Structures are given as C-alpha cells and as structure tokens.
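quick one, 213 residues, struct below
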Amino acid sequence: MCVPTVLSDVDDLLEARRDRVVIGVTGPPGAGKSTIARAVVEHHRRAHDEDAVGYLPMDGFHLSNAVLARLGRADRKGAPDTFDVEGYVALLTRATRADHDVYAPDFDHTAGEPIAASLLLPATARLIVTEGNYLGLEDTRWTGVFGLLDRLYYIDAPTEVRRERLLRRHTAAGKSAAAAQAWVDDVDEPNARLVATARHRAHLVLDGTSRWR
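---
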C-alpha cells in the first residue's frame, strides 16, 4: 500500500529527529504523486494540527503562459525548462530552515497559471511535503533539490494507466480528444522518460495504482 508505507516511514523519521523533516514525492506525469502527497499532508493535519505540516508543490513554479509564449515554450509546458527552477530551489531551501511562516505559490489547474503566495508553510511545521516531476534530476539546474530532501519517494504506474489518467486530465481542461492525445505523445511521454532516469535515486519506489486508503 502506497500511502501507508510513506506514512510509516515519515513517522519513523519524525520520531527519530527533533528538527524539520522534508520529503519529496516524484514520478512521471500521471503516476499519482500529487494525490499521494496531498494524502500525506491531510493525514498529518488530522493526526496533529493544521500547522504541523507545510505543502510545497513544484507546479507552483510553472512559468506563466505569457512568459512561456514569449520564450517560445508554450507548446511543451511542463518540460523542465518551463519552470522557475531557481525560484523553487530557493524557496524550498528557505522552507527547510525558516523559523517564521513562509508563503509559497500554488498552481490553478482551471486557469492553467501559477498563483503567488497562495500556500502557507507554517513556522511550526515539523514536516514539509514537496512534490513534482523533476525532484530527483541530476541536471545542474535541478540538482540542488535532492540534497534538501530527507526522503525521496518515487511513485510509478504502468504506461497505459498513466496515459489514460493524462488524457482525462487534458480533456477536462478543455483540450479536444485529438489535442489531448498529441500532448500526451509529444510532451508528457518525453517528460516521463526523463523523470525515469532519476528513479534509482529514490529511497523508496512505490506503486501509484495500489490501494492507498
């Protein structure tokens, strides 16, 4: 079971340490990492309190649609160079050490845009949960992420399962069936292959299709 395994591991870390624990949840597009990361956050909020955990999604650091258009990258939004990598690393670094509240951006999937300062990482948080595709990459722009994590969990799922999830996601966001299929083939799957190169760096590899409740 995916989430119970992560919860047990995180509880062991929190019990063994007095300082803040930072975990990362990664995996290819459509594997289920956001669902699992949010389940971990909600569990710790219920078990402790609202201010015991902070959530910092990498998606909040998407470049805006206007910037992507200006850079000529709008047709592959979600690729590694369509994020503010340095901004993400800087804020994650700050969140691991801060003794005060930290504000973080989130991503509005309806608008397709990042929303500044819409998440609060409380000063009292013992646990910070971050998630995204590229947390384990050894690329020079992303390599700073891995060193900030106490654990990296890699969530995987069969290609056909991921593709079905992604097609539903893209059509729900307004793409036609043909456009959704093209996006999965031309953008999501190349990104998935890149993410898979970092699988070996994860502390645990977990099945994103298993029952998690």
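Strands lie at 21-26, 53-57, 102-108, 113-121, 127-131, 151-156, 204-207.
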